[in-house]
Amino acid sequence: MNDMELDVWLYGDLARFAGGTSGGGYANLTVTLPAGSTLEGLLDSLGMATGERGFTFINGNLSAMPGIQADLDRELKHKDRVAFFHLKSMWPAQYRQGASLTEEIDEALHKDPEQGLRHSWTAKSHVNREQISRDEQLRYRRTLMLPEIGESGQEALKAASVLIIGAGGLGSVSSLYLAAAGVGRIGIVDPDSVELSNLQRQIAHSTEAIGTLKVHSARERIAGLNPHVLVDTFNMSFNPDNSYDISSDYDILADGTDNLKTRYLINDICVRAGKPYVYGAVYRFEGQVGVFDALKGPCYRCLFPKPPQEDDHISDMAEEEGMFSVVPGIIGTIQASEVIKLILGIGNSLSGRMLLCDVLGMTFQEVLLSKNPDCLSCKAGQ
Amino acid sequence: MWILRINMTDATYRLEEPSPAYKNLAGRAMTSTLVSDEVPPLCHPLGPHNKLVFSAGIVTGTAAPTSSRISVGAKSPLTGGIKESNAGSSWGPALARMRIKALVVEGLPKDKKMLGAFLTWDAAQDKPTLEFFDASDYAGRDLYAIYPEVYEKFGKGISVASFGMAAEYGYGNAGVVFNDMNKRPSRYSGRGGLGSVMASKGLKFIVLNPGGAPGVSMADKALFDEGRKKLLEALQTHDITKPKGALNSFGTAVLINILNEAGGLPTRNFSSGRFEGAASIAGEAIFEGVKERLGKEVYNHGCSPGCTIQCSNTWYKPDGTEHASCLEYESVWAMGANCGIDNLDKIATMVHLCNSYGLDTIETGATIGVAMEGGLLPFGDSGGAIDLIHEIGRGSSIGRTLGGGTEFAGKAYGVVRVPAVKGQGMPAYEPRAVKGMGITYATSTMGADHTSGYTIAPEILGVMGKQDPLSPEGKAALSRAFQATTAFIDSTGHCLFIAFAILDIASGYQGLIDECNGILGTKWTADDVYAYGAEIMKKERAFNEAAGIGKAADRLPEFMKTEPLPPHNQVFDISDSDLDSVHGEM
Amino acid sequence: MRITLRVYATLCRYIPGASAGIPLSLELPYGATLADLMKKMGIPGEEVKVAFVNGRARDLNHVLEDGDEAGVFPPVGGG
């Protein structure tokens, strides 16, 4: 059988399906497929679910739009130009009125009671946005075999969004596991660049990435691990001015920060928005991990009502007292596990409990926590 | 409510009660009605009988979301017909809060001396009051230099309307400029040369400080509030208009890649529908470029107070300092694809220069495209294009030729391929690839205008169901519907981008109608929207016919009917009778 | 009575030779509270911390019993 070459354009965040690095808001690649392949076959080879794309063009003819995907069975020809647009793109009705169409969408539009003048923009209502592609079927096979998760669980993971505050030791590990597991959207907040002294524990970054932004380095790594994950990057500190805007689009917030002030801020935002806060913190050979979900149990301020004074002997920085390489790995992995369980609604979460981990003695101490009736944050959140 | 008339013949002003016939008119409905009623259609646009009319929309100045548009109208020096061009700025709400239904600038000064008008609220008299000031020091200067001086002179809380050097030369492509939220002279009623009308009157500034003014009066505030909440909710949930949605992330330039793929991005003076450099100047590239230069994702800002969509971007230099704001789809296309230029830094310089000199970016880019076609400089010569904008700004011989606009430049350089209708240069949609747009360009009362057929009301879809919008007759009917509903939106003071939310979300559309009924005390239903808009179109059309711009002008340039456009290799094949049905069956 | 105590993180500095998570055995008079225990170990009252007994967080007025396993941990900041 002969092969054919396709000129494929991926716009906006779909550029991540080009594999490897891409910049400038698009990617253009040549895809070789067996002659006679369909558009669906092209989507499979890219690893893109059909619901990921919006407006689509074949040789300049509109072939699909959000909500009307008439082109899946279309046979592609050698040298066809195929362009996929992201779901944040648009083409208002009046600016496409009388544009060139493929036969299939022309027919579909004639059947549509509103001729496509009104349609959904995200494809959610017509095509299951979270449906998973063939590439993903294979990728998540081991997960799909678990009856506790299965296909519906995998779709729930794809539909979920998690914000990780800090791309250091904890964030490196939790973000990679969440990406590997197939969480659909991960936001990463971090103001810093990668330094050589980070690399003994911050495994999302590489030696080559020294000097580049941590959020970009982490995004590259995630894209290499699982291109189905949308990564939003926020190269800034998480502070009271931006915390609400940044976090409002995410279901769960995961802690990867290196200071107490930000932890109070994450807690307060989560209490206010009714979102779970998956807490993790590390110190030399020790770690703490828990889930603060004020709707169900205590929040961080129920435990530690007020931030410590500046002169209290509480270490904010790994560099001050050292850090055992694997501690953030252990804690970050448990955090990822808690996030996934929360998304799936399975098992017992760490809400109302804290695990204290001591790696030297290799002990885990569980402490049951309860809601503090005088907690100011919980009161304000009600 | 008042009509404020500024007579520049003797530098006086007066407030008058509006005629009862004007009760429900605002925005475009007001400017076009007043121009129809008072301006002789055959007058010279820069002569004593033309009038420049400013009117904010029905809901402008209230808490209605995304509603700070100000309409400017007059007889156009570019098209010779009626013109309404609107902009988003704090200026519109300021005028509305002072309860000025229309501000009319009329007459012609005896000398060339420039004056400014400073309008404030006189609490003792309970009405607006106006003082003239000498503005001669501001003439002939860069708008980015003089705006800060005006802000310094009049203090906080002001809004400023003005024009640049381009208008002082009387160009057909000079706009009226308003301030943005950052006090930049960057929000334009750009099309049709209205800046030159204002300059001909010798009124360099209209500065507003509405402090103490009572605000917009409402017949039924509860109904208004109900409406505005419905519309707000629709805007904040629709994928195009919500925070971090399409417009807030990528701005209007998100259309560059789409139109390019569709083969409808006019390239090198409308000689192709596809530009090989499109992806590097598109909204996605702007977003990524800013992220790289600033080290963080930046979402767009609002052009005016109370906008929840926030689609305006800023481009930064490699060192992170501001370069230009804002890079709209039309501007990026005009300076970019249309001139064969694929470098965002050069495009940003060109856009910034247009703002400095007071030029309409669309007309300027379309004109340079024609000049390139005419051999004045090669396509893709960004340095040469930047020099030409300086020539236009400096008023050199070449500059004055190009300042006349696309059609004028075509005549000067013997170019056949001149993309203009009724003398106005075409925006960024190729009519041979997007034929419905071609119908609107041909038949709009404004000349080639991409915003005159923007909105469609949901209930019109039901009517359209009987006609196939994919057929030529159906396309004409749809264009008529688009144009009429757009004329209504232009009169409400809302930005056209509410179109998405009101089309797709029924409660949003009802919210828009509730808002207007709440303010005016009317009992409009969905049917009245179309009727209101159609009435405006009829008035504008009648003015144009009386000015000698009739059916024969409702046509696209000849080359579009004969030259096939790559990559689809199609010509514009909508028949004249279908074009005529747009107004004929109104 | 005899109780065991585990201290964590920065609180170890108050107890010479203590190591995080490693139980210390000590004698207290009957009726002693967690606050008495903190005082005996030299952990200042204003130090931000959570104390727990037999795996459950308790306030400092909690009265200890013979054989209790107590512990105390502060917030930590690293990540």
Q: Quick gist of this model?
A:
The complex is a heterotrimer of chains A (382), B (586) and C (79). Chain B is of the alpha+beta class.
Give keywords.
heterotrimer; A: alpha/beta; Ubiquitin-like (UB roll); 2 domains; 8-stranded mixed β-sheet; 14 helices; B: 586 residues; alpha+beta; Aldehyde Ferredoxin Oxidoreductase,  A, domain 1; Aldehyde Ferredoxin Oxidoreductase Protein, subunit A, domain 2; Aldehyde Ferredoxin Oxidoreductase Protein, subunit A, domain 3; 3 domains; 16 strands; 14% strand; globular
Describe this structure in words.
With 382 residues, chain A is an alpha/beta fold. Chain A has two domains: 3-111, Roll (Ubiquitin-like (UB roll)), CATH 3.10.20; 160-381, Rossmann fold (3-Layer(aba) Sandwich). Chain A has helices at 39-46, 93-96, 103-111, 134-139, 141-144, 150-159, 169-181, 214-225, 243-247, 260-273, 300-303, 318-321, 327-344, 376-381, and strands spanning 3-11, 26-34, 56-58, 61-65, 68-69, 81-84, 161-165, 185-189, 230-234, 252-255, 277-283, 286-292, 353-358, 363-368. In chain A, the strands form two sheets. In chain A, strands 9-8-7-10-11-12-13-14 form an eight-stranded mixed beta sheet, with helices on both faces. Chain B has helices at 27-38, 91-97, 143-154, 165-168, 194-200, 221-237, 246-250, 255-261, 283-294, 329-335, 344-357, 361-373, 382-394, 397-403, 406-412, 435-443, 458-464, 472-492, 499-504, 506-520, 526-546, 559-562, 576-584; strands spanning 2-7, 12-16, 52-56, 69-75, 82-88, 100-106, 115-122, 127-134, 159-162, 176-179, 185-189, 203-209, 315-316, 322-324, 420-421, 424-425. Chain B has three domains: 2-209, Aldehyde ferredoxin oxidoreductase, N-terminal domain (Aldehyde Ferredoxin Oxidoreductase,  A, domain 1, 4-Layer Sandwich); 252-299 and 310-418, Aldehyde Ferredoxin Oxidoreductase Protein, subunit A, domain 2, CATH 1.10.569; 435-494 and 523-584, Aldehyde Ferredoxin Oxidoreductase Protein, subunit A, domain 3 (Orthogonal Bundle), CATH 1.10.599. In chain B, helix 10 (329-335) packs parallel to helix 12 (361-373) and helix 11 runs parallel beside helix 13. Chain C is mainly beta. Chain C is built from one helix and five strands; from the N terminus they run ββαβββ. Chain C has one helix spanning 34-41, and strands spanning 2-7, 24-27, 50-53, 56-58, 69-73. In chain C, strand 3 (50-53) and strand 4 form a beta hairpin. The longest helix of chain C is centred in the middle third of the chain and has 8 residues, at 34-41. Chains in contact: A-B, A-C.
